[in-house]
Write a structure and sequence with these properties.
Layout (H helix, E strand, L loop, with lengths): L14 E2 L2 E5 L4 E4 L12 H12 L9 H7 L8 H16 L3 E3 L9 E7 L11 E8 L3 E8 L7 H25 L8 E5 L2 H8 L16 H7 L3 E5 L16 H11 L1 E3 L10
Parallel strand pairs: 5-8, 8-9
Antiparallel strand pairs: 1-2, 2-3, 4-10, 5-6, 6-7
């Protein structure tokens, strides 16, 4: 199939929609045995307290948003592996206690958004994760990392769904800014990296490739036509919302963390008392 179609080899299939798949030279075996990582069950109450403590600092630390939201999906029946991962995030926070968000004075007050998505990142139900972030001059002030409500059949659909969710957030933020006297005279720039999703959004015709997508996600087409948003392609390396959708290599994580405006207080310019 790879000789005839443009495809990416993701390796052997192990899990799909709650089903387990075992492949050998002689057969393919499907099962629905309860998933277990063999690390043993963790104390559920203690795990919930730990994850709750991780969710609290996300108000000023968008760099831990993805990890905290991912761990919160296992509030019931967590394993020692989940518990160990949560403690690893705690150690990261301990080593970056002086980090926070910087907002600079005198910056251009224009709303700019970034949105991204992985594809079928959840091995349990094969759903994708949406992430978005919005800046207003400097530093992000609105961000999210959310598992999508339906299974995306392609990367383009996953990105399209993420962009629709970000558009709804952008519309709401524009209303709030107008109440504060900061009416946005131009369309909100929404940056995402998938060119196929951009093409789907800008095509006013509903065709075979989009008929299976939930109607609620086509809201982005109307917002684009009304001039509420403007879609722009963003290179993967500069896509700050990527930090909300998947685990990244250390170098890229640190780079995107800086683009979010998260930095150490010791790196601030001028005299700062802590």
């Amino acid at each position: 199939m790879m000789q005839k179609y443009e495809m990416t080899d993701l390796g052997l299939l192990h899990h799909f929609l709650g089903m387990g798949v075992i492949q050998s030279d002689n057969c393919i075996f499907l099962h629905q045995r309860k998933k277990d990582d063999d690390s043993g069950a963790a104390d559920e109450a203690q795990y919930q307290k730990l994850v709750g403590s991780l969710l609290y600092p996300t108000a000023t630390r968008p760099d831990i948003m993805y990890a905290a939201c991912l761990l919160s999906r296992f509030m019931h029946c967590p394993t020692n592996k989940h518990y160990g991962t949560a403690k690893r995030v705690l150690r990261y926070i301990q080593g970056t206690l002086d980090f926070g968000l910087e907002y600079k004075k005198g910056e251009w007050t224009v709303l700019i958004g970034f949105c991204d998505s992985d594809w079928s990142g959840s091995e349990d139900d094969m759903r994708s994760t949406s992430g978005y972030a919005f800046t207003f001059g400097s530093g992000v002030f609105s961000w999210a990392s959310v598992k999508q409500q339906c299974v995306a059949l392609s990367t383009a659909e996953a990105e399209y769904t993420s962009a629709s969710e970000a558009t709804a957030q952008a519309t709401w933020i524009r209303f709030v800014l107008e109440d504060f006297g900061e009416m946005q005279a131009v369309a909100t720039q929404l940056n995402f990296e998938n060119t196929s999703a951009i093409a789907i959004t800008k095509n006013p015709i509903f065709h075979q490739k989009t008929k299976h997508i939930n109607r609620r996600y086509h809201y982005i087409k109307e917002a684009l036509q009304q001039g509420v948003i403007d879609l722009l392609h963003c290179p993967t390396k500069e896509q700050v919302a990527d930090i909300f959708t998947k685990a990244l290599a250390r170098e890229q994580f640190s780079y995107l963390r800086e683009l979010l405006g998260v930095k150490s207080v010791h790196n601030l310019k001028g005299s700062v008392n802590v």
